[in-house]
Structure formats: structure tokens, C-alpha cells
Amino acid sequence: MVARLRDRGYLTEERAIQAMLKVPRHLFMPQAIRGLAYEDRPQDIGCGQTISAPHMVAIMVEALEAGPGMKVLEVGAGSGYHAAVLAELVRPGGKVFAVERVPELVERAKRNLASAGYEEVTVLLSDGTMGLREEAPFQRISVAAGGPSVPRPLMEQLAEDGIMLVPVGGRGHQELIRIERQGDKFSRSELGGVVFVPLIGEHGHPDHLG
Fold first, then answer.
1. How far is CA 57 from CA 41, 60, 104, 161, 209, in A?
2. Where are the domains of the chain?
3. Which residue of the set 52, 79, 126, 142 is catalytic?
4. Within the chain, which residues score under 70 in pLDDT?
5. Are 132 and 97 in contact (CB under 8 A)?
6. CATH number assigned to the domain covering 2-194
7. What is the pTM assigned to this prediction?
8. Which of 76, 80, 157, 187 has the fewest CB atoms inside 10 Å of its own CB, making it the most exposed?
9. Which sign does the torsion angle of CA 8, 15, 1, 57 carry?
10. pLDDT recorded at residue 208
11. Any catalytic annotation for residue 142?
12. Distance of CA 130 to CAs 86, 97, 100, 181, 200, Å?
């Protein structure tokens, strides 16, 4: 899988390559579809949610530029796979806080991460659009769901030299936005069209599980 992503140009940085090589993706998939774990497409993990295609994970982790010792917020923990990749990138000394709004997935992500050995990831049941104020600021924020706009709480909780990735758009299609903060100034760039599940919450789309 990683070799294919590298050959297709999705993976170019050695640290990202090594992170994706180390995380056993199949451990984060439902048992019935583990045989599909290394195909490059999103997979249904239940509860109306998906695990992102490997190429999308590669795009996001390279654009996020997470490094050792950083504190990262992930919005949309899902099964925990993306959080595990981020954990590899912030080792040693870093921490990943992954928030998820679906209780069943919170428990599943906790089990998956524990079985794979990622103690530096904390998974919490929460409205991800509100961020996690008690642990802010975050040097990196990664949002794995598409909202109508960039949630204001996430902007406020981004560290003064931080980077955030967030898909912005409708329920069927979004633009992946990279936001960089320098002091009180924010710059943003568009990284291309993407399709994520809806970002649900106070600063996202109305509650919808479908």
C-alpha cells in the first residue's frame, strides 16, 4: 500500500512514509472487512462513518507537518487509524487528542489504539466543532469531516504558529483547506476537492447520522 502511494506521488516525505508503514491499518477495520484494509479506498466502519482512503490520509499527514513533541487535535476519531498515524509523527513526547461524537466509535477507537500500542492518543466523546478548550492550544489540528465553514472554536484553539486542515463545503463535496496561524494572523490555501462525511455539531452541519 505504502509503495503504491509513494509511486503515485501521495507520499514524498520519509517521516510520513515511515509512520504509515508502522501503523497496522487492518487492526482499525471491522473484522468482516479486514481483507480490504490495504486497498486505496474509503471503507464503511459502521455508524454512518468511514475510514478514509489511504491516499487521503497520506495527503493530510504530509500537509499537516506534525512533528515530535507536538500536541495535536483530531476531530473525527472514527476507528482510530488516522490518530495512530499522527501518534507516530509526534513521537517522542507528543500527544494526540481525538474527539468523536458517536459513542460506539469512541469505545472502538479506544480498543483499537490500545491493542496497537498507541498510549499517547486520548479519545474523547465530544462535539468536535467545539474543539477541546481545556487542552488548547494545539500546534496542529486535523479535521476528518466536512463542515459548511471553519469552526470558530478551532481557529481560536490553534497555537500561534499552528497549522490546521479542515474540509469545507456541502455534504457531498468539500475543499480541503490548510490554515496557518502566525500570531493573530491566519492564512489559508486550498489543497483540492475532497469528499468527507459531514461535520456535525454546533459549528457544523445540523445533527444527522446518515
1. 11, 5, 22, 23, 23
2. 2-194
3. 52
4. 208-210
5. yes
6. 3.40.50.150
7. 0.95
8. 187
9. negative
10. 55
11. no
12. 21, 13, 11, 18, 11
Using an 8 Å Cβ cutoff, are 157 and 141 in contact?
yes
Q: What CA–CA distance (Å, rounded) separates 82 from 141? A: 12
Write down the pLDDT at residue 48: 84
Q: How far apart are CA 51 and CA 81, in angstroms?
A: 8
Q: Is the bond leading into 92 cis (omega within 30 degrees of zero)?
A: yes
Q: Which amino acid is at 151?
A: P
Is the distance from CB of 40 to CB of 28 less than 8 angstroms?
no
β-sheet with 95-100: strand ranges across:
121-125, 95-100, 71-75, 138-143, 158-169, 174-182, 185-194
Q: How far apart are CA 167 and CA 151, in angstroms?
A: 11
| The pLDDT value given to residue 75 | 98
Q: Which pLDDT does position 54 carry in this prediction? A: 97
What secondary structure does DSSP assign to 103-138, as a single string? Answer: HHHHHHHHHHHHHHT-TTEEEEES-GGG--GGG--E
Q: What is the pLDDT of residue 171?
A: 81
